[in-house]
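Morning!

This is the sequence you dropped in the shared folder:
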Amino acid sequence: MAKATDDETITAFLRRSEPARGVALLTPTMVVMGTALAAPLVLLALYSFWSQYGLTLDTSFTLDQYTHAFGRVSYRSLFYRSLAISSIVTLVTVVLAYPMAYFVAFKVEKSKFIWLILLTIPFWTSYLLRVFAWKVILGYNGVINSGLMKLGLIHEPLQFLLYNPTAVVVTLAHAWAAFAILPIYVSLEKIDRSLLEAAADLGDNAVRRFLRITLPLSLPGVLGAAVLIFVPTTGDYVTPSLVGGPKGVMIANVIEVMFDKIGNWPLGAALAMASMAMVAIITLVSVQAIRLAVARSK
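The structure's back. Tokens below.
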């Protein structure tokens, strides 16, 4: 009887208190997030402050792994290369995705959902299959080389198409295009068309309307797309390992080797934490800089 009374009291409290209802609704999600996301990150952070000697793991606190990660020239070069490749991929993908999203949002009047499905159909296949498809396209005896040779434009296959940073950029840009199209489309779709009509009535041409209204109002979608692309591509190791070659290796490939082949988990954890920290700092600084630039332009 007492237990039933306590349950009724808790139920009545939850009904009266909106914050309590919010906490009750969020608790299952927070438990899952804490177990599946936070716990592995905490464990990774702990490993980065430990050391490993052969098969022996020393759990004494040390910064040796971070000193090694930032002090070695080859690791720093990989950090810079990873950030550069991811930045180029983000820029190329957003620039290519914006016209597609703009066309669907402003030029298509009916069946927009069908157009969105058509744009995303290539991304229904496995990510790995798409990477292998680009390997076939860019390969020594691939589609591009075979086509150019049949047209008589080249006499022997081009060797620079595959196994370089450019191949990594092309493959990643295609693989993540859908993640740029959809956020930009949503941002463009929310723009009030009456603003464009008012600008036209005041004498603005199409270019001025785009620069003064459409582009600034769609920046939230552009920023969202940029973040969605930049963060995961920095940590991608599948694409560089398949189409990058020695010159296209990124920091994630080294981290994978540390964990899977060498077995130096502390150093791999330090490289992973350093990579995440650098990506987070660059993302926050870039977003804030763009927001300040937009605010000043107004």
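Headline: Strands lie at 51-53, 56-58.

More detail when I'm at my desk.
O.
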